[in-house]
Amino acid sequence: MSTRWYPIYQKGGPQLRVFLPNFWMKLVRPVLEQPPNVVQFACSMEMTRFDMKNYLEKIYNVKPVHIRTRIALGKTRKDPGKGYIIKDDDVKYAYVTLHKGEVFEFPDVCQSQKKDLDDYEKSLEQAKEGFNDYLDRNKQRPGMPGWFTI
User: Fold this and answer.
1) Tell me: the pLDDT tens digits for 137-149?
2) Are 54 and 70 in contact (CB under 8 A)?
């Protein structure tokens, strides 16, 4: 069942209607070690194996050899404030096996963060030097509050 509402068919102008699929797939890093040619996805609950295969072939030009799916049940817990039971949504995982020679590696999306960390470390060092200068200036005045400085 689709959650999208499509416009009712009317004569003329069929090129104005766009039908979008209600499917999505999200790349997930597996918890357990997988072979190099196996990729794990979280996908919508309505997708079948055939839908996943078509999705990967048409959109990403990836030809999977085999697809296995499993449904992970959401956690059930008690709400700390009200006391009633809460259950998280279930998640469907798909394990896509690629051809034998293909190897999947996760893309490095943190390259910009490494540069940002270098800038952060430099500013942290400057802050430490400034604090040490402040302590050196106020060594001669014990017991004087820090805000009372000339």
Assistant:
1) 778 877 777 677 6
2) no
**Token pair of 124, please?**
């942290």
> d(Cα 134, Cα 128) in Å, to the nearest integer?
10
Encode the chain in three state secondary structure: CCCCCCCCCCCCCHHHCCCCCCCCEEEECCCCCCCCCEEEEEECCCCCHHHHHHHHHHHHCCCCCEEEEEEECCCEEECCCCCCEEECCCEEEEEEECCCCCCCCCCCCCHHHHHHHHHHHHHHHHHHHHHHHHHHHCCCCCCCCCCCCC
pLDDT digits (tens, 9 = 90+) for 71-99: 999 999 999 888 899 999 999 999 999 99
Fill in the amino acid letter for 42: A
**What is the token pair recorded at 55?**
């999705």
Q: Rounded to two decimals, what is the model's pTM?
A: 0.60
